[in-house]
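Batch manifest, entry 17 of 40.
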Amino acid sequence: MICAIAVQAISAQTEDVYLESKLTTLHEKLDGYVKNSPIDQKIQRTEVSQFWLHALSAYSNLGTLSIFDKISNLDEVELAAYNNLETQINNLTAATQPSISSKDSALAFVANLIVLKNQFKLKASKPVYFFQADSNFITVTFLGEFPVLLRDTLATYLYNGNKKVGYADATDTTITFKFRPQQLDLDKAELLTATNLKLHLVGQIGRKINPKKQFTAIYNFYAMAIPSSPGKLTITKNSTAKNTEKQTKRTRTFLLNGSKGNLVEKQCVPNHEGWTLMPESVELVVEISKGQKNRDWSFRKTNSGGKICYTAEVFFNSTGTSGKLEYHLKYDIIRDKTEATANTSELALTWGQVQQLNFDFPITEVLFTDFMGTQTKIVNGNFDSYWLQLKQEGNSIGIKTTDLSMLNNQH
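Output type: structure tokens
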């Protein structure tokens, strides 16, 4: 009995921690869920985590409690809401694939919270997306109910822990911020990495500024750098071209020696299967000769029956130099050759692209290089990912990329 009581006491002490610590743990779970997600789930996980991050912030800003209270100090309604929040976030972060209904559950959780009269009501929004290495202005508008908002850019601002930017415009139902990525160090954010930002709101009860009648609400949200392009396609096609191949040939060396009498011989150009002789190229090349041409030796070209030959003669001279001739035949042959050549072209992809590509030659390979530099060879003419859907049929390729321009449609 005494042991049981001791165990219960230790357990109670373990659980009786500050609410802030518990909420921080849940925030870290959401951050880890986004950080450790597969690359093609980054955006889906970030979006659903954003809705639960909003729910976490909404609970933290309840006017009935303080995050610096211990769990044991929560009333029944507050404790039940916390237990529900913890269960939902634990279920989300333990799942491999985000539940389709998880966003609705987060919205329902916030809607069921008891909100005091002067408390801010901030509607859930998507993460803030911006193109990596883009220095253009980012415009973010938060919707909700802000009738007691202190209209002071030093009191109402976005911040990352080190830097902050004041609002550009505020009404009872909207707060708009306009800033460049570098103002909140977003230009240093890694691709598809969720950066934590905070929205700092100050409420003023009454017309006169009185710090004692002010309250603060802080909402956490994610900002994510997205690639400026899905990547590129490398398309290899086969084309054929007819070329004329030419070769120069020669016969062996022939010898005629007229020292013992007159000699005559006929040498013809040999056939080469598949090749055509160029008649005008045939010539007799004298390597060595003795005597005088056309007196002691001579040759003539003949063309008979499609055969091109040379007849060479040497003459005997009893009183002087007899004719001597060493020679060969030289000629050119040609043939038509059809060659298959690989032609490669690259296509830079853009977001929201829907296009049909048609080519004159057969496609032999399609390679997708995504924005991370990873190459994927398209197999069986189909590819389907969060970033790109591709279908190849014959000499045509149909492509569709995700329209990331719609991501910042906040509500």
